[in-house]
Amino acid sequence: MKPLKRTLFALAMTASAVAFADQPIIGLITKTDTNPFFVKMKQGAQQAADAGGAKLLAAAGRYDGDNATQVTAIENMVGAGAKAILITPSDTKAIVPSIKKARDAGVLVIALDTPTEPKEATDALFATDNFKAGELIGEYAKAAMNGKPAKIATLDLAPGISVGVLRHTGFLKGFGVKDGDPSIVCSQDTRGDQAKGQTAMENCLQKDPGINVVYTINEPAAAGAYRALQAAGKAKDVILVSIDGGCEGVRNVKAGQIAATSQQYPLKMAALGVQAGIEYAKTGKKPSGYTDTGVTLITDKPLSGIDSKDTKFGLDECWGTK
């Protein structure tokens, strides 16, 4: 190679290395990599990273509740030079010491979807108002009962997980009852799983066959509950409500299996989180507090006094397509 060409080649390689070194690294850690909700979240994060010239590192727990894998992911991302880490914490308390270590090392940490306990353990939270999501379907179910006595089954997430607690208590607030009310005849944990949702509903029907309102933590649990209700010949006698607003869940609303669902927008959560991470990497500016990424009640059976959108809107917007 001639001297001039060698010089130009060296300059080009140096410029490339500098450009690569300037590329901010953003980490995304979700609860699992199989749940469609988190698949959509990862899609939003990757789109925002590509648009902002950042490198995305993604990791996930092996199952919902897998704190150990999330701890390892934080350590690996800090070691890889991540400027910001976005996380949907599986164990909202146990993950806090690892988050503190990352923040002490100068890494921006943003919670997505699920707040840590305490919320101040992260720099910021980008999420659905899960209490409001529960409240919306509680108000809908109450209105749909039209004054008839209710026998309520709650198919919940798992003890101690904040997103499940917020949705559950929001639903009860919207329906106008509190934990311990005699109208709540059965409560079961499902971990948001369809098979566990079906088993939970079967158990509840054995306990009280007269159940006429079913709250579910998410749409996979709702799908399981519907199967159990259908097998028992009670699907038409029950108002089944849920939360998430994924495309499959909205299709189940359209099919009449779910009366109403609260739609949230994980793609938007992740995209906003990545954008904030890139800004921090470039300017040092940190986001703070809570950013509400929105929630919409989706139903094809609108009720007077209850603000909602139909399933056409729900399918156009499912999980944040913009």
From TrEMBL:
A GO cellular component entry from the record: cell envelope
GO molecular function per UniProt: carbohydrate binding
Family annotation (InterPro entries): Peripla_BP_I, SBP_2_dom
Keywords: Signal
Keyword Transport: no
Location in the cell: Cell envelope
Boundaries of every Periplasmic binding protein domain copy: 26-286
Signal peptide as annotated in the record: 1-21
Protein family according to the UniProt entry: Belongs to the bacterial solute-binding protein 2 family.
PANTHER family from the UniProt entry: ABC TRANSPORTER SUGAR-BINDING PROTEIN (PTHR46847:SF2), D-ALLOSE-BINDING PERIPLASMIC PROTEIN-RELATED (PTHR46847)
The protein, known as: Sugar ABC transporter substrate-binding protein
